[in-house]
Structures are given as C-alpha cells and as structure tokens.
Request: fold
Amino acid sequence: MNELFKNAHDAYADNVDVDYFRKEKLFVLRDNGIGMTRNDFESRWLTLGTDSKFLAGKIPMPPIDSSKPFRPVMGEKGIGRLAIASIGKQLLLLTRAKSTKERKNYIVAAFINWNIFELPNLDLEDIVIPIKEFESLPSSDDVDSMKEELLISLAHLVNVGKVSSNDFDTLVSIIKEFKVSPKELNEKLLGEFDLGESSFGTHFYISPTDESLNSDIDGEKDKSTSTKIEKMLLGFTNTMTPDHPNPSIIPAFRDHSGLGGTYSDIFNKDSFFNSEDFLLADHHFTGAFDGYGQFSGKIKVYQTYEFDHKIPWSGNQFKKTDCGSFKINVAYLQGRLDQSIIEKEEHTRLLAKSDKHGGLYLYKDNIRILPYGDSDYDWLDIEKNRTKSASYYFFSFRRMFGVIDISKELNHKLTEKAGREGFIENKAYRQFREILKNFFIQLAGDFFREGNTAGPKSEVWVKKREERKAYYRALERRDKQASVRKEKFIASLNQFFDNLDKQNYESELSNLLVNIENKFQSLAEIDDPEEASQALIDHELNSREVLGNYIQKIKINQPKGFSISKDARKDYEAYLTEFDKLQNNILRNAYDKIDDIVEDYSNRLQIEISKRKRLEQAVDFISKQAEKATRQKQKEAKDTLAEVTKNVSHLARELMIDLENKIRDVKEGFTRLEINNSADFDLVNERQRIEDEITKERDKASIVLEGIIRQLQGIYWDKDNPEEIITSDQITDAISEELEELRERVQADIELSQLGLAVSVIHHEFNSTVNSIRHGLRDLKAWADVNEKLDGVYNNMRVNFEHLDGYLTLFTPLNRRLYRNKEDISANEIKIFLVDLFGARLTRHDINLIHTKGFQKRKLHGYRSTFYPVFVNIIDNAIHWLNQANIKEKIIRLHADETGFYISNNGPQISSNEVERIFELGFTKKAQGRGMGLHISREVLSAEDYKIYVDAPREGSTVTFKIESNNKS
Reply:
C-alpha cells in the first residue's frame, strides 16, 4: 500500500483514498493523479522493472503535471504493480489520463487475475489481459464482459493443453466471485473520484483480499502498540513538525468494518503526531548536518533554555561525506511525569501516542522512507545503547518523535533496496548512520547526563528535573494525606443520602426518643420533691446531650485540607440543604418532644421546677460543652505549633551541620594540595571548584529554608466581619476547588463549542439543499404537466419531500435569526409543536401527552427559539425515562397557572441530591448522554429573565419541572 501511495504521488495526485470493505473482501484505492492513456498503460504499467529501462531510454519517463510543482519520482523501481498481488489476487484497474485540447482521453479498464501468472508451462504471451475503454465508470455488466473475455482465453489454453481442467475450474470459480460495479460504488464512496470527462486519475479494485489484511489492520489485542498498517502508512508525509511543508498528497484509509456503512479512518488526525504535540514535548533539537557530517543547530531543554550548539564528527577524517547534507528536527518526551513539565492529562496522552508511534521518521522530499520510524526497527541502536546504561545514553526511541529530511538531489547516494526495506548498506548509508549515532550519544553527554562525564550545559537539565521531582513529591505527600480524608468525606455523603432516601433518620430518632422517655420513668421512685426536681432537670440535660451527640454523628463537616470535584461540591451543597430541612423538621420536633416529656412528667408527678434554675443549668451545660470543645482545639493548635517549631529547628540544624561538614571537608582537602611543588597547579580553576562545592551546599540550605519560611508566612487569618474569621486554609481550599472545577469545565466547553459549530454547518447545508430540491420540484412539475409518464414520478417525489419538509419545518422556531422580535406565544401552539415533533415516539412507546385547561389559556412572552427547545428537551427526557420505567399508564402532563408552567410525568423520581445537579453541564444518567440539555435550557431561560427548577411533584406525578418568570409583576 505504501508503494501504491508513492505511485499516486508520482502521478501528481492531490488525494489517494483507500476504502476496504471487510464483508465483501473488497479493497478500493482511488487517486486523482494525471492517470494513464492506453498506450501508457500497456507500455509502462504492464512492463516490469521499468527503472533501468527509463535510464536506458527504452521507455519515456512518466509524464508530469506542469500545473503543479515538480515532484521527484518515488516509485521508480516499477514494483508498485507487484505490490497489488500481495493485497489480493484479482484486480480491476481503471485509469483516465488528463485530457488536453488536442486529445480527449477515455477511461482505460483492465482486468487481471494474478493466479494465472503462477500456472506452470505458461509464457507471458499466452496470458490475455482484457483491456477496454469507456466514456464513464463501467457498470457490473461492463465488468462481466471483461471477465468473460478472460474466461474464453483460459478455455482456449485448456484446449491447447497449457492449462489443466482442475486449474481452469479453480480459476473460473475465483473470477466469477469478482462482483464489482464501479458505477454503483462511486455513488456511496466519499471523495470526488468519478473519472468523468473533466476529471482524471487511477482506480484499483482488488478482490478477494488476502486473509492477512484484517489482522494487519486490527493488530494485537493490546491496543497500546501500533498495528502493521499503522506502522507502514501513518506519517506518509511529514505533518508533525511546526514548519513542515504542505503535503503534496493527502492519504485516507477507511476501514468499513461496522454496520450501516460505518467506518474508521486510520489517518484520523488524532492518530498520529501533529504540530501541537511536537511543541508540547519537553525538549527539542533542530538543525542541519553539513556535507562533512558536522551538526549545527539549536537545543532547547524543557522548552525554556535554548542553546546554539555544534556537534563534530570525525568519522570521515573531516572529508566530504558520500551521504550528503541533511536536516533533523526532533521532539523528546520525559517518560516519567515527575520529570516532565507537561500537565498530567497531556503527558498521559503523549506517552500513549509515543508508545505506539514514537521514533525517528525519515523523509525523502517529504515522502516517508520505510521502515525508518517503526519503533521495532532500532536502526540507530538507541534502545540497544539504553539497555547498556540509561543514565549514560539517556535517549529512548519510543520517547522521541521527529524527522530527518533528505532529498533526491542532495542525498542521491542513499539508495533504497529493491524490496523497499530500507537503504542499501553502502558507504553513504554507513556514514549517514554513524553521523546520527554520534549525534545522539554526544547530545546525551552534553545536555542529559550527570557525573564526571556530563557536559557543563547538562546542569540546566539536572536542576530543572530535580525541581520537577521535588514538586511532584510534595504533591504526592499532600494527596496521600488528603486522599483518606477525601474518601471518608465522599463515603459520609453517600451514606447520608442513602439513609435519607430510606428514611432511616426518622426511625432512628423515634427509637432514640423512646429510650429517652423510658429513662424518665425512674423519676416516679423519688420521694423527695427537691431531689425529684433536680433529677428531672438532669434527665432533660442528658436527653438533650444524647440528641446533640446524634446530630453531631450525622453532621458532615466542611472539607478542609483537600479539594473536591465539582460533583462532590454539589453533593455537599445538596447535603447542607437536606440537613437544614432535617434540623427544621424532625430534629426540631425531637427537641420539642423532650420539652413535652419534661412538662408531662412535671405535671403527672406534681414536680415543681424553677424555670430560672432550669434555664441557668441549661446555659451552664451548653457553656461547659463549648468551652470543652474549644479547649480541645486550642490544645491541638498549641501541640501542632510546638511540633512544627521542633521540626523546623531540627531541619535548620541539620542543614547547618551539612554546610559545616562540607566546609570542613573542603578545608581538609585543601591541606593535601601540593600547590608550590606542582608546575601544573591551576589556582583559578581550583578556587572555582572549591567555591562551587561550598556554594552548592549553601544554596541547597537556602532553598529549603526559604520554602519553609514562605509556608510559615502563608499562615494568616483576617476578620471578614466582626463575626467571621477567614483563614489562609479556607482560601487555599477555595482556589483548589475552583481549579478542579475549571479543569472539568474545559472539556465540556470544547465539546459544546464543537457541537455548536456542527449545528451551524448542518443548518446552513440543510437550507441550501432543501431550497435546491424545492426549485428542482418546481422545474419537474413543468415537465410532468406535459408528460403523463412523469406525473406519477413527480407526485411520489412531491409527497415524500413534503413529508420530510414538514419535519424540517418543525425546527424553524429553533433558529433565533428568524425571530428577532419577542412575541406572545400561546401554550396551545407549544402543545401542537410538541405533538407534531414527538407524536410518532409517544405512540410507539404508549405515552399519553395531556394538558390542562389552565395550560391552554396561558401565554409566554419572548423568543420562540428560547422556549421551544426547553420544552423539547424536557419532553424528550421524559419519554426516555418513562420508557425505562415499568409503568402501565405512562403520562406526561402540561399545566400552567399564574405563577408559571409545569411539565410533569410519572416516571422514575429524581433523588434529593440530584435536583440541582441535573442542571450542571456534563451531568447525565443516560447511557451515552452528554449532560447538556438541561444546563443549556437553564442558561437560555436565565438570559430572558426566566428560571427552571425541579418543583414538588404535582398530584399523580413523580417528577415536575417548573418554568417561571423572575419578574413577578
């Protein structure tokens, strides 16, 4: 296939498309190159090994397209046609040469069965290749006539004894199985390749395909490695470097393996590296090797530190090389996240892509040369060296992606092997390979190595790498400390809502109050009135303490010291709402019940209680509880301060000891220096070495202590008002949550914007298409009026189009541009719109859409394009969930009153913690849902000063949405 792509390039094609139909075992390759005349086909395409014959002048060179830039010939070995036989054993070739004013060219068609060439005792002149010419793409009948011509020739060979009957029967069966109609295929295939009078190009229809093709496309079960097809075809032209030339040819490969005409495109733009990926990498190396093998270029470390750099090569004794000058541009990814400057999500994506496609790709005149770039072909011994010592050689083939650019003009001695498995290993190639091997070994030493063998510029990489490692260690410690608390927090929220839905709190409080009341019964055994009065007050305080402890048990404190996701934040906000309801209802009732019990026993046992005494003791009890809790926190704060002080003092002492030890070691080494007796002693260098050692230790201590100081200075608090103190901890948590929420929103916003763009394009295309069909029908009517035979055809088309146009018209109100003025919209119009739109679905799912008189009387004021989509979304959701429910009578009910509009159904209930979350962008419980509809509905209504929310279910319903105006007047 790679060879066929090169042939398309040589034919000056702008596009070459492959469509592979697995079920039919049909492989179709089409290009829009200059094509071939019949003479070209017979004299060049059917002639093998044409490279030598071109050079000998026996055959003219392939034609060029003078309207396009000159292209060096890539498929010059003439073996492309043989590559077809490895794809499948039968070929229908169609080609049309670019016509000129002097000559009109027709489609040349040829049918070839490669099995015939494998038969013994046959000479090439015995084999007939049917060739015909057509004005337009041939039909299946045209192809059958070519097959018949081939079968007749084979029958003749049987008669003269050159082909056996068994071989003939086998060939007949294979030839008859070839069922292709280029004319019909062209109707459903993408791209403009119809080979009409004004177009040109070449088509290959190959069937049946070789059994290995499917496995080459699918690869192994492990999708982290690239398939054979991906290794051979991806990166056919250089599209990864930022300054890459415009591709002279754009390939496509559609694998039609799904149902309903679905396919996957191997050349999907996200499959291979692009310019954005390239710029995202940690390090970049770009430059050129001159005719002597010397590199000169720029090295950028961690995207920030750029160096002009030269790397010499002495392998040819500084003489001119046979391989010639060439360019290189490489991006490199640090394999470990904690050593990379790339964000986690992007690093994970790039790492997966480099695992599949990482490597150094070789391009001649911007067309890839195989197998260079295949991660399994370690042609520069990069992985081999890494296994010897990763710290010394540094580079990994799978962590780099980049290009080497050569040209036919400058590197003509780099010659490809006949089988296209790389370059012939001549002197030029050996020099080329040694230059590159030396480049990566020297580059590692100059920039990416530690120790005595490292170059001075490597300090930049070492320092930045250590900074990243320290940063991630700090993150890991923070996350480790926070993860346990976060998991406990999430589990507590889940447990709360589970208990709430099961009404566990009501039953637990009921049991608690029964136990409390039972303890009051002991008061009947106390005879002393004063003692009984005090006992009653003690029982009351104990009861309130028990109830207070129960409330603290179910109470969930605000998260501290860790960030939570937007969904978890919404759950916590829903918890606060529900907990507030509990406090104002069943918990308040429980306290009132204790008051009732006290009052009841006071009256029943005729116990007199001093209200002042009762109040004083209650205040004393609450005060003691508050003081106890505050003292506990005060002690924890003092203990924490003492621990921090101790740790900081210990760290500072250790750093000071390390510095003193280093100074002592330097001074001790200084005494052993033979300064006066050595003629080679370099005072300047020695002083610099000593200063560097001491300064390095000083900087280490300073950096660590400065970090501690910044942390301690970051501890502060401020009184927002006399009642509330805001701490730095609260601000940090708020920032962390905002960051988490922004990260989640980015992807959703991208999807939403893409959806909006797609809808805009579709709307434009629909308008154009529908208008064209309307005009066409009007033109057809004029013919139908005077031709009775066309009348039936016209009426049938008109009725079906009106049916389709009726559906399209339903969406007219959704386009705001048609309704720039606000208007009164009757609820009845909305109902009619919904019935027209959903009527078929409602009937199919046996759902009743009913409305009340109150709904029918009401009106909305605003844009139809605002309100219609809101009703559509809610009804669509209701149909979905009603269809999931096991309910005999499914009802959607529309109602309205003076306060707003209600849309109700009797499907599954919305849980209490989700009544607000369902309006969040991205929240969905539908399989394959996007979580956009209700969010957009709330946003567009808000812009018109309306709101939508989940209301208390109306009678006979389980779910009710309400739309109401914010302007109550």
In short: Residues 611-671 form the longest helix (61 residues). The longest strand covers residues 890-897.
